[in-house]
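Incident log, structure service

09:12 report received: a user says their structure output differs between two submissions of the same chain.
09:20 pulled the input from the user's history:
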Amino acid sequence: MLLIYPPVAKPCEPPAGIARLTGVLRGHNIPCDVLDCNLEGMHYLLKMARQPKDTWGKRAYKNREANLDAIRNSRIYKNADAYKKAVTELNRIIGVVGQEYGLSLSLVNYQDPDSSSIQSDDLVKSASFPEGNIFYPYFSDRLVSVIESRQPEMIGFSLNYLSQAPCTFAMVGFVKRMYPRLPIVIGGGLITSWMRNPTWENPFAGLVDHLVAGPGEDSLLALMKKENEGKSLPPCYGDFPLSEYLSPGFILPYAASYGCYWNKCSFCPETAEGNSYVSLPSDCVGHEIQYLKSQYSPSLLHFLDNAISPSLMHYMITNPPGVNWYGFARVNNDLADEEFCKSLRNSGCVMLKLGLESGDQGVLDKMEKGINLGMVSKSLRALRKAGIETYVYLLFGTPAESLNEARHTLEFVIKHHDEISFLNLAVFNMPINSSESSSLEVNNFYEGDLGLYTDFQHPQGWNRKEVRRFLDKEFKRHPAVASIITRDPPFFTSNHAPFFNTVK
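09:34 re-ran on a clean worker, output below:
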């Protein structure tokens, strides 16, 4: 089997889903090859780019290789300005190449103003005319070479983000044209979200042979006529070009669970999609991480869980992985304890991403977050004292929020600006299949049969336009907030943030 990760996504670490599938397939004696077309595609664009005519573009073009080397070296992360210059110049080259195709293209995103990733007709058109895709000269040669040499029985694509959809279907169309009898299966986070919509009807019949929602191990084994033997099989990263990712050393992405152990927050996509929570036992996680560490010598461990469970945190403290690590966590009593946070830091934890969402207690209660602001304040202070960075996520425009509550969030951030390392600001999108949407006046957010969200009339008139005006004119302009926002690594954001020591 050939497993493919398509463009465009952040090219800073290998795809964890494909690595997990590879480990399972090979553990069941099924030959498997992997191809990170996202990483290879980015290198292709940087190599084939023509020199821009403007001064900035010429400098960026000249510095391509030097900037790639710099991003892969830890030294540049000690100088935020030098890092931002290197990343911005690389992105400038990608953007110029994209403009030649009429695209808004970056290191981490792909947007075509003439085509929509949530319109199935447009994706089918991408498949019918793969030559129109910017990566076609690369993948048309690469896929033929790999397929002819390896002779796979099936090809699988991992489609996780809307930014990957156009290229995925262009590649699917190419494979179907060249090898019409070769079965194609597509899975991944985006496919899961599409298929969990109660109104889902497959628009890709005849083009894609199999679509898989959720974890794909059992489905792929069944397609390959094998039963899951239930063995503990760690991910396999050995076939990825680990030294070529845009990070200072190999970042090991690892998922200890699927779904969310809290799974109560209103308007959350996890809740709306009905994703169940499944986790590996902590000792199994520990054994797998030790094995992966011995095999690949990672510079950083990235937990992909929606929220690292408290039990796993306790396990990490008593069984340190021997490598720095970070991931999402829910604020809880443990994190409000200074001694616990110190122990967590001693285990290698360098950053936690915290989904606070709001600095107003009433909003948190109505969202059923299960946290209180007093606990959050204690946790931020304890984590700071322990030397653990915090990447705080805020969500504006939820049905429970108005301008008054949004200003409470601003006040909370100002109060804790010395304890917040990084900020992520987002405007709320209503999941299209959210049960709470039945109580609101909703309308199409975007035109497209594959849309994941719907617009709604805010019950307090706090609509998207007003929310964005508040963020741009008031929230971001406050000096305490602006000082945090400027620290955010451009494009790579939380994936590179752990390499910056902001905790003094």
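09:41 both user submissions now match this output. Likely a transient worker issue. Closing.
09:42 reviewer note: The chain has two domains: 2-223, 247-499. The CA atoms of residues 80 and 97 lie 26 Å apart.
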